[in-house]
């Protein structure tokens, strides 16, 4: 089963900005779960190209090209378009229209206080020169979520403030029209153990930090990543006792090696001294090669026919648009914007 319980009436919505290929961190933190969840309730997966543009306008082709790349990642890990609706954000204009109304329910100072926005402004060095579309993307994200009446939004911990702000908008909107049109959603965050550090030991795996292992990695790239993987810098000789905490190889073994007795045994021997990094790395490499081989093969097959993948996205987008249009109509109706 997945990490959290859902009921058949739950509606899941989540998505990814299309700025790069997905990696093992995405796999452990969310993709794995999405594959399980699609059998238990309705699931919408958003390729967030429009949101990606809020801070990538100078790189629009990257954003566009990664729509296909992220879709390939989804399909390669086993997301089934018969079960999950995969769609392209920019092709659902109802989302922008909803967002334009929601913008009237949030203040600039509230947006500036959103902790994720605050961090991102700092990271990107915007200071006071913040693209307005970037500052207001929480309202757009509220549209993404509410358009589908999502009840569950599986996201990374950094996204929790977005769901909080979404729910504020929901409550404000419902209160202002005095009807329960929009639905509050629950953020579901992966357990601590589902957060994979980068291969360099940094807390977050990220392509831009250069510490990620992408899902399409070749066998050589996998070997190289494992070879470079951060272990215990004080474990100089095989006979030295080694440390498990912060040792990326063990963190990954915990995430990927189903034989927990074997991992426990390796940990005990490593701690005691006498077990070299090459042994634990060999074990991990076998695991990762076995995990990624079928994903890579399936991805390569799919990538041979990009038009077929785009057809999947077209069908998903058509479906998503219908749902979003219905919510938008309800929202407008509730505001009395039904003139003719
Ligand atoms: N903000 C999310 C991210 O950066 C992507 C995203 C856009 C999203 N719209 C969403 C996630 C709606 C969940 C729900 O990864």
Task: For the structure shown, list the relevant keywords.
binds tryptophan, mainly alpha, 340 residues, 5 strands, 14 helices, two-stranded parallel ribbon, 3-stranded parallel beta sheet, 7% strand, elongated
Notes on the structure:
The protein is mostly helical and 340 residues long. Helix content is 54%, strand content 7%. Helix 4 crosses helix 8 (137-146) and helix 10 packs antiparallel against helix 13 (277-303). The longest helix has 29 residues, at 306-334. The chain is elongated, with a radius of gyration of 22 Å. It starts with 10 loop residues before the first strand and ends in a 6-residue tail after the last helix. Bound molecules: tryptophan. Tryptophan is lined by residues 13-17, 46, 48, 51, 141, 144-145, 153, 155, 159.
Instruction: Sum up the overall morphology in one term.
Output: elongated
Give the uncertain stretches in residue-range form: none
Spatial order of the strands forming the largest sheet: 1-2-3
Oligomeric state of the chains in view:
single chain
What percent of residues adopt helix (DSSP H or I)?
40-55%
**Order of SSEs:** EHEHHEHHHHHEHEHHHHH
Structural class, from secondary structure content? Answer: mainly alpha
């Amino acid at each position: 089963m997945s990490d959290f319980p859902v009921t058949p009436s739950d509606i899941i919505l989540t998505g990814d900005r299309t700025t790069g290929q997905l990696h093992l961190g995405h796999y452990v933190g969310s993709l794995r779960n999405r594959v399980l969840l699609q059998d238990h309730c309705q699931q919408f997966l958003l390729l967030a190209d429009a949101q990606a543009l809020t801070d990538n306008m100078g790189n629009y082709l990257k954003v566009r090209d990664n729509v296909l790349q992220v879709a390939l990642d989804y399909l390669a890990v086993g997301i089934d378009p018969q079960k999950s609706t995969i769609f392209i954000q920019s092709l659902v204009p109802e989302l922008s229209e909803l967002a334009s109304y929601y913008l009237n329910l949030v203040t600039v100072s509230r947006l500036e206080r959103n902790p994720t926005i605050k961090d991102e402004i700092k990271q990107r060095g915007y200071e006071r020169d913040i693209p307005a579309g970037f500052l207001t993307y929480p309202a757009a994200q509220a549209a993404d979520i509410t358009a589908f009446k999502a009840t569950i939004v599986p996201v990374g911990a950094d996204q929790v403030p977005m769901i909080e702000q979404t729910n504020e908008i929901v409550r404000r909107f419902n209160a202002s029209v005095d009807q329960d049109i929009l639905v509050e959603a629950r953020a579901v965050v992966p357990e601590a153990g589902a957060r994979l550090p980068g291969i360099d030991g940094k807390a977050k795996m990220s392509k831009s930090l250069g510490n990620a292992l992408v899902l399409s990695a070749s066998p050589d790239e996998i070997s190289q990543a494992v070879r470079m993987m951060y272990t215990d810098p004080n474990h100089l000789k095989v006979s030295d006792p080694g440390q498990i905490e912060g040792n990326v190889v063990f963190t990954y073994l915990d995430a990927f090696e189903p034989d927990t007795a074997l991992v426990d045994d390796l940990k005990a021997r490593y701690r005691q001294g006498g077990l070299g990094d090459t042994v634990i790395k060999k074990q991990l490499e076998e695991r990762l090669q076995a995990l990624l081989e079928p994903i890579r093969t399936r991805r390569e097959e799919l990538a041979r026919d990009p038009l077929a993948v785009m057809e999947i996205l077209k069908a998903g987008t058509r479906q998503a648009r219908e749902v979003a249009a219905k919510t938008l109509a309800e929202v407008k109706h509730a505001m009395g914007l039904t003139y003719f």
